[in-house]
Amino acid sequence: MTTPRPAETLASATEATPQPTDWPLWEVFVRSRRGLSHTHAGSLHAPDAEMALRNARDLYTRRSEGVSIWVVPSAQVTASSPDEKDAFFEPAGDKPYRHPTFYEIPDGVHHL
Amino acid sequence: MNVTATPALPLGDDALILSHRLGEWAGRAPVLEEEVALANIALDLLGQARVLLSLAGDEDELAFLREERQFRNLQLVEQPNGDFAHTIARQLYFSTYQELLFEHLAAGESELAPLAAKAVKEVAYHRDHAHQWTLRLGDGTDESHARMQHALDALWRFTGELFEPVEGLEAAPWPTLHDTWTTRITSTLEQATLTVPEGPQRGGWAAGAGRQGLHTEPFGRLLAEMQHLHRSHPGATW
């Protein structure tokens, strides 16, 4: 039987002890009490969705009542690529028929 | 020091001392998010302590100038933090108790009703936090399961005192509160694959005379640290 060298001991100890960094990253979206939509508030680490919600409540809402929180694993978010920006977002300003600006909005319609 | 005889004093002492214990976690929690959660709970409890102690006298005098024998907090809340599981077990036992007691007080018409109505929402969150962590530690790894079970067992003998009638609140339904408490704790522990500790909660074997001013040994050191500055500079304002 050989005594493990210090380096090996260290390696196995590291494997056996999950590090806090194993906690995945979550993106937090908050809708404030009078807010109309959820806004990205920031991100945090949590072991699962339930704890992510609770952490988000502590970190981003200060427990104001009447707010709604969404948490999403960051890995689930697909982002547009900055390289494709032009093709994605260049507004077709010379094609006015693409923009629905020719309508009168009735008074009773909000948030359009 | 003018101290009014009121149940606000023992309940305020519970909140003050547990708040101090949780404050000791600052900078030492397992992860940053948990650091914030523990500090949040500590702040809630300190807020409750301030209101409650103010009902009994001057909050600063009561916190900083009383001797150990004059404190009326439960022995449970003065227990050292230990490992994370010990802190969670202590919080689970206490928050479940505090939530039930405050629900009862909020429904009444005593001077404590307005504070209890406000605090019960905070305490529901504290209990949920402890519940969530009990599930994760109990049903986590072998190591976390063993630690959580050990913490629950170690603190069990302090739980009998929770249901000794508080002076001024003798009319509260203590046996019913105890039954509901046991049901809730049992439910959480079963869900967490843990075993409800065995052994008497009261009597010679069990601990608990904090309400009479008899405290465990670590409490003196807690007070020494908490009161040091005030006693070194009596009468100072800050």
From TrEMBL, chain B:
InterPro entries: Aromatic_CoA_ox/epox (IPR052703), Ferritin-like (IPR012347), Ferritin-like_SF (IPR009078), PaaA_PaaC (IPR007814), PaaC (IPR011882)
Entry's Gene Ontology BP terms: phenylacetate catabolic process
GO CC term, one of those recorded: cytosol
NCBIfam families found in the cross-reference section: PA_CoA_Oxy3 (TIGR02158)
Name assigned to this protein: Phenylacetate-CoA oxygenase subunit PaaI
UniProt source species: Streptomyces inhibens
Lineage: Bacteria, Bacillati, Actinomycetota, Actinomycetes, Kitasatosporales
